[in-house]
């Protein structure tokens, strides 16, 4: 049944007649007046609802009608509303009704009584033998239980045929039909696949300089074989012609051209397919050399500087790609310095006798462009000033591409956004530009949890520790950071809280305060007194003690963001109260334990750190490097027991090995990552370092997989190295990695530098899954550990270990 538009005034008169009994019941009038019939004109529309909905989702209708609620009723408004509803193609009949929205008729409620179109009960395909039904179903927009719309079915008919064309079935025919049943509509797509068309041979005519094999490698179209199906797509033919021309031009043959493409078809009855031979007819021309580039109209930058951006040397074979890169580099030089309105016109000058091509580069310089406005889009949670303060350019400033790039890097490093897209649009005048930053916010609340092996020796104790951490790095959109964490194990329990701020006094000055409380059960080497002389008890060398620690820390930092890197300088102070509880009949060898025996004592430290960060994105880099140095001095008061300096040096390097497009939305990318960290402890001459203050291999972040030596060997020097191959599976979400670790622990820095051999290293390697979401920085690793002797013979542990770790972003 087709829709027919009828006079809505008559419809509403009928609606009023239906409503008349309510009016008559008031016994105020015996008949409806003309003014009563049109009472709804000029009234605010309070609500719009639908009756008799069965398959159509009312929420889908709300998206159409919500824009009319609150508007005054008029012929134009009601006509637009009907147009929107008719355009949905959901209903066979639509009957509107006007009802008072309140007792005084100050508002109107519109109710549509509808008769829905039938639903799609079944979608079938017939005649498809070469392509699976599931693949064809994915290509159509109609789905079972959808409202049947004939227009959609016809569009899907073309979509199914496009699937066949993409597979090389150029003779395929698709016919869509529908059948009404008591339950709804059954849709069938009848396919006549015909013979498939494959490329049997790619040939070239006129090529003398370049071999046909080389030219084939430049084409998207491929011959049918064991690996390639050889599907022919007409749309790729033009792109391949351009690829051949571009290849010749990069070899200096600037006049090269594909003047014709011939196609010959042969029928292969045995394989029931058309086999196509495609021949590209080429005119190569002569090879040219580059005669240089001269500049006209340039005043801002001298010709010598502009020539330094030309990537072709005079006298070298001409290369079209390098020429285009040179033009872009010159344009970028002006652009990066704020000259966005310049005009560039390179004029080629061909010397056909000597086969030389030169360029006269005409530049029309303009004044620097200024930023007229900066706008932010997409931020619903993060306050706008939090975003603006990370962009080192303001309205009225001279435009700078370098500052725009720095702002983009700063915004990504906040880890508040999954995507940041900057755009430069023309301003209200020629030399004004508007900057638009579109952001996609992501969750800034993270929960980290995991298990670490604690290496206990008591069979009644659990040999692992549970770890959980909650953090919100953008609390209520203010850029403040709040976190809480806890560790629970049989021999250790801890809880910590922290609060941080990235900006103070309108400057990139960071501050943080943190506190923690912990309890642990430990063992220490024991010294006994027997018969007035010192001796070690040969039966029991160790004593047990409990350690209680409360800590409080405060830090300040400052960031600088030049174009080439992010520089950070920070410092802080930490104070701890420590109490070691044990039976004083025992005397520990470690005097730093005895100093805190059954009483609270202070342990304080002050630190400073400096870092240089050139990574593109600090939490999931593809290129760049990072280096940092941190120095911490322990022992600020005369009554403390430990006085030593700790040095932590870190270095990272990242670069992309390759980044090859596989599909329109996914690239095969491989990133190489390298890390080295060195921790050294230097005590004063009259002070020792307690075992709890020493460094150790944890098997979770360094020497991953060596969980069996966790906390067993502590020393004053630790060198940890990591190499990784990273392959993103879902960019920004999930990656597959292969890692190799090597770590060594020594009793002193001197021993590390003078007495370290290959046999001292703990090696591990294996695959892993890495979540690169900042709020879910989990790593699932399988590690196989091994050692080497001095002759480089490898001894494997012969077992794979599962390691739960985290992505730690060094800053």
From TrEMBL:
GO cellular component assignments: cell outer membrane
InterPro entries xrefs: Bac_surfAg_D15, BamA/TamA_POTRA, D15-like, OM_assembly_BamA, POTRA
Keyword Chaperone included in the entry's annotation: no
Secretion signal span: 1-26
Keywords associated with the record: Cell outer membrane, Membrane, Repeat, Signal, Transmembrane, Transmembrane beta strand
One record GO biological process: membrane assembly
POTRA domain residues: 118-194, 197-285, 369-442
Location in or out of the cell: Membrane
Entry protein name: Outer membrane protein assembly factor BamA
NCBIfam families per UniProt: OM_YaeT
Gene3D superfamilies linked: membrane protein fhac, membrane protein fhac: a member of the omp85/tpsb transporter family
Record organism: Treponema berlinense
């Amino acid at each position: 049944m087709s829709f027919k538009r009828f006079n809505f005034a008559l419809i509403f008169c009928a609606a009023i007649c239906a409503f008349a009994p309510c009016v008559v019941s008031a016994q105020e009038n015996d008949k409806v007046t003309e003014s009563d019939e049109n009472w709804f004109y000029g009234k605010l529309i309070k609500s719009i609802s639908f009756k008799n909905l069965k398959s159509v989702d009312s929420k889908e209708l709300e998206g159409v009608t919500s824009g009319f609620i609150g508007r005054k009723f008029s012929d134009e408004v009601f006509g637009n509303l009907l147009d929107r509803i008719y355009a949905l193609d959901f209903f066979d009949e639509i009957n509107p009704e006007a009802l008072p929205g309140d007792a005084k008729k100050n508002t109107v409620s519109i109710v549509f009584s509808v008769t829905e179109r039938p639903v799609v009960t079944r979608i079938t395909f017939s005649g498809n033998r070469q392509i699976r039904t599931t693949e064809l179903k994915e290509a159509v927009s109609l789905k079972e239980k959808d409202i049947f719309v004939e227009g959609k079915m016809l569009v899907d008919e073309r979509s199914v045929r496009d699937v066949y064309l993409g597979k090389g079935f150029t003779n395929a025919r698709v016919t869509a039909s529908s059948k009404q049943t008591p339950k709804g509509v059954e849709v069938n797509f009848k396919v006549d696949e015909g013979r498939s068309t494959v490329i049997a041979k790619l040939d070239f005519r006129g090529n003398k300089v370049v071999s046909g094999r080389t030219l084939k490698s430049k084409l998207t179209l491929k011959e049918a074989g064991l690996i390639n199906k050889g599907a022919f797509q007409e749309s790729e033919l033009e792109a391949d012609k351009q690829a051949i021309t571009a290849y010749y031009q990069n070899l200096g043959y600037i006049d090269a051209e594909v003047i014709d493409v011939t196609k010959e078809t042969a029928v292969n009855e045995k394989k029931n397919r058309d086999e196509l031979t495609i021949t590209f007819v080429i005119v190569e021309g002569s090879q040219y050399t580059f005669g240089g580039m001269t500049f006209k109209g340039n005043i801002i930058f001298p010709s010598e500087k502009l020539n330094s951006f030309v990537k072709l040397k005079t006298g070298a074979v001409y290369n079209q790609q390098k020429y285009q890169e040179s033009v872009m580099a010159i344009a970028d030089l002006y652009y990066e310095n704020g000259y966005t309105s310049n005009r560039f016109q390179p004029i080629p000058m061909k010397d056909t006798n000597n086969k030389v091509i030169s360029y006269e580069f005409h530049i029309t310089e303009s004044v620097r462009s200024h930023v007229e406005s900066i706008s932010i889009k997409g931020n619903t949670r993060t306050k706008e000033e939090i975003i603006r303060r990370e962009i080192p350019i303001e309205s009225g400033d001279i435009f700078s591409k370098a500052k725009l790039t720095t702002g983009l890097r700063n915004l990504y490093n906040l880890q508040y956004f999954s995507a940041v897209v900057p755009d430069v649009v023309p301003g209200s005048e020629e030399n004004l530009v508007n900057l638009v930053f579109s952001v996609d916010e992501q969750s800034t609340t993270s929960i980290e949890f995991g298990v670490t092996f604690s290496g206990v020796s008591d069979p009644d104790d659990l040999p692992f520790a549970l770890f959980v951490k909650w953090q919100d790095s953008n609390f209520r959109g203010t850029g403040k950071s709040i976190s809480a964490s806890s560790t629970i194990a049989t021999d250790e329990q801890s809880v910590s809280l922290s609060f941080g701020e990235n900006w103070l006094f309108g400057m990139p000055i960071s501050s943080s305060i943190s506190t923690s409380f912990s309890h642990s059960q430990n063992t220490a080497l024991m010294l006994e007194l027997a018969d007035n002389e010192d001796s070690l008890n040969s039966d029991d060398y160790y004593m047990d003690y409990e350690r209680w620690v409360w800590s409080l820390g405060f830090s300040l930092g400052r960031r600088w963001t030049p174009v080439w890197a992010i520089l950070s300088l920070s410092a802080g102070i930490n104070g701890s109260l420590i109490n070691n509880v044990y039976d004083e009949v025992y005397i520990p060898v470690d005097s730093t334990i005895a100093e805190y025996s059954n009483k609270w004592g202070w342990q304080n430290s002050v630190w400073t750190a400096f870092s240089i960060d050139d990574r593109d994105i600090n939490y999931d880099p593809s290129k760049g490097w990072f280096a940092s140095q941190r120095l911490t001095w322990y022992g600020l008061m005369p009554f403390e027991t430990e006085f030593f300096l700790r040095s932590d040096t870190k270095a990272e390097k990242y670069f992309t090995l390759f980044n090859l497009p596989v599909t329109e939305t996914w690239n095969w990318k491989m990133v190489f990552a390298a890390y080295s960290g060195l921790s050294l402890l230097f005590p004063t001459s009259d002070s020792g370092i307690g075992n709890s203050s020493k460094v150790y291999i944890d098997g979770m972040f360094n020497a991953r997989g060596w969980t069996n030596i966790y906390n067993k060997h502590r020393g004053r020097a630790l060198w940890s190295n990591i190499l990784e191959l990273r392959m993103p599976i879902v960019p920004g979400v999930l990656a597959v990695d292969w890692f190799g670790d090597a770590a060594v622990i020594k009793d002193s820095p001197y021993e590390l530098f003078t007495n370290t051999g290959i046999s001292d290293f703990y090696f591990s390697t294996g695959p892993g899954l890495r979540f690169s979401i900042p709020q879910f920085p989990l790593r699932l690793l399988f590690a196989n550990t091994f050692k080497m002797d001095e002759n480089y013979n490898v001894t494997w542990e012969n077992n794979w270990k599962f390691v739960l770790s985290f992505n730690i972003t060094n800053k």
